[in-house]
Specification:
29% strand; alpha/beta; 180 residues; UDP N-Acetylglucosamine Acyltransferase, domain 1
Length: 180
């Protein structure tokens, strides 16, 4: 009985996440198929955001499209993540920082990426295909394809595959229709 209740609860959570994604699709620049946006996500400047197929954005995540954000296919974004696409200027000492301009810069998250819990991605960053970002990491610069990175700021811990396998995988593409 308990497992049946748990299954029903989980189904309802993902159903409401699909409904939430369909709502946001009205405002985003582009959204693919089978996108899940869990509860308590904040999305600002949605018209600058493109989301691919089979993407899950977990609860309490904040994303911004001010400087443009592209999220590829098969991306998992853990809970409490922040994807920031603009920074405040601070060079004018005669004006409070909050009244200075914001500088928008793009963020790109390529296909098959996993962001652990509490990850922060700063503006002007590309996260390469197949990368894994460890929990509580701050991404300040580009992440190579298939890298496992962590820390503040992030550094490469290791790669998911040997170098020759990564070269072979760069030409392979997951087809979204294979996973519907």
């Amino acid at each position: 009985m308990i497992s049946l209740l748990q299954a029903c609860y989980n189904k309802s959570i993902f159903l409401s996440a699909r409904v939430r994604a369909r709502f946001w699709k009205l405002f985003l620049k582009k959204m693919g198929k089978r996108v899940f946006i869990m509860h308590s996500c904040m999305i600002s400047s949605p018209s600058g955001i493109e989301i691919g197929d089979h993407v899950c954005i977990n609860h309490h995540t904040t994303i911004s499209g001010m400087g443009s954000l592209k999220i590829g296919n098969f991306v998992m974004i853990g809970p409490n993540c922040n994807i920031i696409t603009a920074n405040h200027c601070f060079a004018d000492h005669a004006q409070p920082m909050m009244f200075q301009d914001a500088v928008p810069e793009p963020v790109k998250i390529e296909d098959d990426v996993w962001l652990g819990s509490n990850v922060v991605i700063l503006p002007n960053v590309t996260v390469g295909r197949g990368a894994i970002i460890g929990a509580n990491s701050v991404v300040t610069r580009d992440v190579p394809a298939f890298a496992i990175v962590g820390g503040v700021p992030t550094k490469v811990i290791r790669y998911r595959f040997p170098e020759e396998k990564m070269e072979e995988l760069k030409s392979e593409v997951f087809r979204s229709e294979d996973y519907l």
